[in-house]
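Q: What residues go here?
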């Protein structure tokens, strides 16, 4: 089929039909650019809100409190270790079934009965023997004080220590009555007496153990 369109007519026809498409593409580009502009540029008369969000705050543990807590924890661990060690080395236990009579109106005094023991305990009452160990029973139960006393006497005897002090305090008098009955059961003692004033007076007991060290005082 032949046509009367020349090349020039064809080019003009193509150009005419392409221009609407080009115009549409240009309009789309402008719309895209408009969308890319920031909200602040499009609305300069609007002031944005300032940030008013408050972050929750939690109390921080201070270094001083942390250090103090750690110190208390370590102290308790040392005390528990010491107590456990003492009880482990306590190779002697006392019976609660034994009870002697000690008059309430006289100062506490007991010894094995021979002249040697009587003479040494007399010097102990005068304060000639300074206690090298002291057991403070304040705040202890009767059962706990009994365990600690056994551990103390065993260790003192092993280490050739002649004199130890037991502080029972005043309180209800439970330990004051119980401790002498326990001490009498330990086989390696010379005797015991109410402590001189400088070592506790009526709130304490001095125990004299029969160890080689005593030979220098005889």
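A:
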């Amino acid at each position: 089929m032949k046509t009367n369109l020349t090349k020039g007519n064809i080019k003009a026809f193509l150009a005419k039909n392409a221009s609407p498409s080009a115009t549409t593409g240009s309009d789309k580009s402008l719309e895209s650019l408009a969308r890319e502009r920031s909200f602040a540029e499009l609305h300069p008369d609007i002031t944005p809100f300032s940030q008013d969000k408050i972050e929750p705050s939690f109390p921080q543990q201070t270094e001083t409190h942390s250090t103090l807590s750690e110190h208390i924890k370590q102290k308790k661990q040392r005390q528990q270790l010491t107590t456990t060690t003492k009880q482990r080395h306590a190779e002697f236990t006392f019976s609660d079934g034994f009870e002697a009579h000690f008059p309430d109106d006289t100062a506490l005094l007991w010894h094995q009965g021979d002249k040697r023991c009587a003479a040494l305990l007399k010097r102990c009452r005068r304060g000639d023997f300074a206690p090298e160990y002291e057991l403070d029973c304040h705040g202890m139960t009767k059962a706990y004080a009994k365990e600690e006393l056994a551990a103390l006497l065993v260790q003192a005897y092993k280490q050739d220590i002649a004199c130890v002090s037991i502080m029972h305090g005043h309180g209800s008098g439970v330990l004051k009555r119980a401790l002498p009955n326990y001490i009498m059961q330990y086989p390696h003692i010379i005797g015991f007496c109410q402590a001189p004033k400088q070592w506790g007076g009526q709130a304490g007991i001095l125990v004299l153990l029969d160890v080689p060290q005593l030979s220098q005082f005889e």
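A: Context that may help when evaluating the design: The first strand starts at residue 109 and ends at 111. The radius of gyration is 49 Å.
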